[in-house]
Input
Amino acid sequence: MRTYFHKSFRLIIWISLASLIFASCIPQKKMLYLQVQDEADTLSTFKNERKIEYLVQPGDNLYIRVVTPDEKSTFLLNPLSAGNNQNIGNDASVYLNSYSVTESGYLDFPMVGEILVKNLNVEQIQKKIEDHLNTLLIQFVVIVKLVNYNITMLGEVNRPGQYKIYQNSINVFEAVSMASDLTDFANRNKVAIIRQTKTGSEVVYIDMTKRDLLLSDYYYLRPNDILYVQPLKGKQFSFANFPYGIMFGFISSTILLLNYLNN
Output
């Protein structure tokens, strides 16, 4: 009877140990991006002809600077930054030296007046200001930049937070790389993008393990998008790096206990 008990106890221990190992490990397939689903999937080029430039909306902020050979004209055309010698690389300084787009889609520019900029991209706004100034100046250069291009990364990312984007566009993988990639516990099959709309907000889910993401309208992010990466189910029971030290210690303790019971 005692021998039977010892054998049953050993069997339970080894079964429990094996179950723990298999249940706690994260399959590699759940951690790979842009997976090839089958051998017939040989597509290597993904065309996406949609426009990715952002169209300015009410509430946006634009940094606009006009440079001319005439110091007085430059001063009059740049009243927000006139006499301000501090480094405009500071985020707060850039914001304070920017123009806000009104609810009706206009901005009030010196010597020109109100300019409709709603639903225009940065290049179109620059061209529109240049057209207005052509009647006033002979030589000048117009610089227009979108100020409030922020992306927020939350959930299972290595460095969650809000990130400033200093370029015209950014895709999902570029955004994830800024946050030092997703964690090993991230559910790459269901990443939420929370996006502001005219009527409120919308939530869409993308699958970063599938290659057709490259064709999606949500592959490129927009200003103020929020990415929320959910954890895998059973995260509390999983670990990315197997704790071999703890497991070997458990095995050693079990062997000692079995030897003690046998004696």
